[in-house]
Amino acid sequence: MRYIKYKYLSVLLFLSLGLFTACEPDPALDVPTPTPGEADFTTFVALGNSLTAGYADGALHRRGQIASYPAMLADKIAEAGGASTFKQPLMPEGGGNNGAGSPRLVLAESNGSLLPAPDPSGASALTNVRSEGPFQNLGVPGARSFHLVTPGYAALNPFYGRMASADDATPAGDAAAQNPTFVTLWIGNNDVLGYGTSGGSADNPFGIAGNQITPTDVFAQGINGTIATLKAANPNVQGAIANIPNILDIPFFKTAAYNAFVLSAEQADQLNATFRATAEAQARPQVEAAVRAVVREQVVEAVRAQVRQQVEAAVREQVTAQVTMAVREQVTAQVTAAVRENARQQALDAGASEADADAAADAFVASPEGQATIEGAVNAQMASDEVQALIQQQVNAQMASDAVAQIIEAQLAAQMQSDTVQNIIEQQTNAQMQSPEVQAIIEAQLAAVLASLPTVSEGPNPFLVAVPQSAENPFGVRQATPEDLILLEVLGFVGSAEFQAFPVLPDRLVLDPAEQANIRNAIETFNGIIANAAQENGWALVDMNNFFDRVVTGFVFDGVTYSATFVTGGAFSLDGVHLSDRGYAIAANRFIQDINRHYNAKLAPVNVNQFDGILFP
Amino acid sequence: MRKNFLSLLMCALLSVSVAQASGYQVLLQGSRATGLGNSATGYVSAQSVFFNPGAMAMLEKSEVQLGVNFVNSKINYLAADNSTYTASTQSPVGTPFFLYGVYKINDKMAAGLAVVTPFGSTVEWEDNWLGQYALNRLSLQTFSIQPTFSYRILDNLSVGAGLNIAMGSVSLNRNLPITGQDGVRAQGTLEGTANTAIGFNLGVFYQPMDKFSIGFNYRSRVNAVIEGGDATFDVPNSVRGNFPNTTFNSELPMPSVTTLGLAFYPMGRDEETGLAKLMLTTDINYVGWSAYEELRFDYAEPVAGSTTTVSRREYKDTFTFRFGAEYRPMNELALRVGIYYDQTSVKDGFMTPESPDSNTLGYTIGAGYTIGNRFNIDAHLLIVDRAARTQEAAPEANTISGTFHAGAIVPGFALSFLF
Fold this sequence. Notes:
Helix content of chain B: under 10%
Radius of gyration of chain A: 49 Å
Number of strands of chain B: 23
Mean pLDDT of chain A: 87
Largest interface: A-B, 50 and 63 residues
Structural class of chain A: alpha/beta
CATH class of the largest domain in chain A: Alpha Beta
Number of domains of chain A: 2
Number of helices of chain B: 3
Strand order of the largest sheet of chain B: 1-4-5-7-8-10-11-14-15-18-19-20-21-23
Number of strands of chain A: 16
CATH superfamily of chain B: Outer membrane protein transport protein (OMPP1/FadL/TodX)
Structural class of chain B: mainly beta
Oligomer: heterodimer
CATH superfamily of the largest domain in chain A: SGNH hydrolase
Radius of gyration of chain B: 22 Å
Helix content of chain A: 40-55%
Mean pLDDT of chain B: 89
Number of helices of chain A: 22
CATH architecture of the largest domain in chain A: 3-Layer(aba) Sandwich
Low-confidence stretches of chain B: 1-20
CATH architecture of chain B: Beta Barrel
Largest sheet of chain B: 14 strands, antiparallel, barrel
Order of helices and strands of chain B: HHHEEEEEEEEEEEEEEEEEEEEEEE
Low-confidence stretches of chain A: 198-209
Strand content of chain B: over 45%
Shape of chain B: elongated
């Protein structure tokens, strides 16, 4: 009896020992089943720009395309019973292509620091994949809103050219041709950001300059035209449209500090000296030219006064001679008449007849004696104060006449233009320019101008930025302020020979507050258009603007801290504009969240941690 | 030599899976206690060395007891927001043990020694699971040596006190959100052994009447302080400078535990052996978890630019309610059944992959058999049913959102020799 009990107990114990390692609990989880809700995911197509294409690390490359947010979204759509295929215009293996032949950026160590550098494996060709179409990912790097409905865009953008259904196709048309039931549209960044910073070639063939913001009406036509194209194919097409993030807060604009121009004391001194010398070399000729102009003006005036005096004196002499001659003629006539009359009277008094008296008078007048008498009387009269005063009066009157004044001016002008006078002026000017007084003036003016020149000191300095030259800013250089946004490219530019030679940033590398305000206003306006389009068409609105704001503020998700910090922030790729794989996963979840809400769907979110951020060597 | 021996002991025996109590407390210090829904403060047994030193002097005989548990646990995880993503732990079978020795010096006095594992947790998640940046693996091991003395003041009143000499070690591994160009994700591992710390354990036992006894137990808080633990980072070469292999200091509180236990014997006792035909017992247990405010690591050299990492924990004090019934169909055999309810110590948002705590129900059964007068053999089975719990992660807790559902099945046994 007791034995049986033991046996029973030992079997029990043995059994339970066997269970010790075999019996594993499996607590139940209520795993949801993805459902489409009111959404029709039968055919899903994604339209957009580089962000939609999966562009990352400064190029379109295969790895980035595979981790594009539309591809992730398509996976989740397939899980919910939607479209099971999602074809992307995949690039060949390799470093990808930025549209201008450069591969993606990879982190590389150089001189002990980690910097983005071109993928050493080189660029991959922008292979033509038209024959593999139609594609469901129609994201085109570099595309602005209106490009989606621009026939001929294939010829202008190689990224679209390689995948377009035809030369005269449009991305929206290629989407519509597939009769999509569900479309995502995320476009507009390039409309405010400018073509140059968003990948693709630098030229904008649409008459909108590289950094110019798309006009509002053109943007609206782009958005509404795209949706209209889709609706023409399928009036019931559903979709989700994402708005434009606040791009001014992305690492591209937030990484380089306005005062990241760091110098040692020695460098600062040297730079101040070099910069001053450069500026002085630039300014001295201007100052000297300005002073010389003033000096020359003074010399010309002085010479002109001198020449005028000479001309007037000469003219007066001439006029005086003419007047004197005329007066003398008059006086001579009077004197001759008087002498004749006197001679006649004497002849009459001597009893000569009238005729004889006239003849005697005429003879006397004609005689040398008579002539001498006349001459003597004329001379006496001419020398008289009365006559001299008369002459002077007449000369003055003539000199004051317009005719003579014109003659004087004409002669003056002619003389001033003469080589002789010009040489005199030049010589005098040169001489004056060399004078200590004028040299002192030049130095003083130069010093005043150079005083407005920014100087640098040891430690961090505000960057110097090129601006148009003006009276207020004769050098065309200003110091950056905390309100300026310095582009990420500056980090590379400061190492360039161009910067080393002349450490001033070109204007295109800096967004000043006015430019920032333009971009902000444009984003607000464009996002209004996008929100309207969503509402009018009954589409879901995906608030990427809000999402990027969150990245900027920083957030923790699934144990990972995200921020807008370049390289280490996690969400952005090495170009500082486009997202990392992980960033695209978070963006995909944004779409999923808003699609779920709007269409009462239950798409599962992407496991963000399945993807990587930036890869480190 | 001694330290080596202890380390060996810890490594070999003390990996404890999912704590069955709130936080990382382990309540597997006796087969009889476990069979009775973890109630062990209001009645007398060899396990009283741990559960209530006050009751020790009431033991009739000297006793040596050795027992072991086999913790089979699993945590299942479901990601948040409609996600279909699931992950599970692949934690090894944990084997927390307990060893008791009680020596009746005389009728009034008893000396005892307990070696137990009061706290611990070993969790191992799938490779590259969603929560990899919060935790891959955690092994928290503590054990405590408790020399104890008990004195019987009156026939029905005794007190006891013991030292709690606690030792422990921790090993934590998680991925870092840095991936190498070779595709390998960086990892950080923190490993350290705690300084020996000393606390105390006080108890009172009172049996005012034949059919009722009451016990009170207080175990003080002990801080496991790790100094000079090894912080090892497996990172891409280019960021090695930011992640130097260095040492760290940390501290983990083993909170105070206060318990009031009651036992009823409604069917009286066997006249020959003094054993109760039926015992109903309950413990009300209060754990000072609020001592665990944060998990902080201080590094000797800056790691990722900082010499500290802090994850907020903000635990709150908890109550546990335990009930057990023991029935002896015959003197040699005891059949036990029990249940306990354990409040979670963790606030919403602070549940972590290392101890995804939630309100817990534990169902227990057990049996004891006496062979002759010298040997007892006890066996137990505990089924832990933690409530599935969903949270949105608090950013400061460095954890993940989603639903955790944990469970454990813990068989075990104990062998006793009485003399």
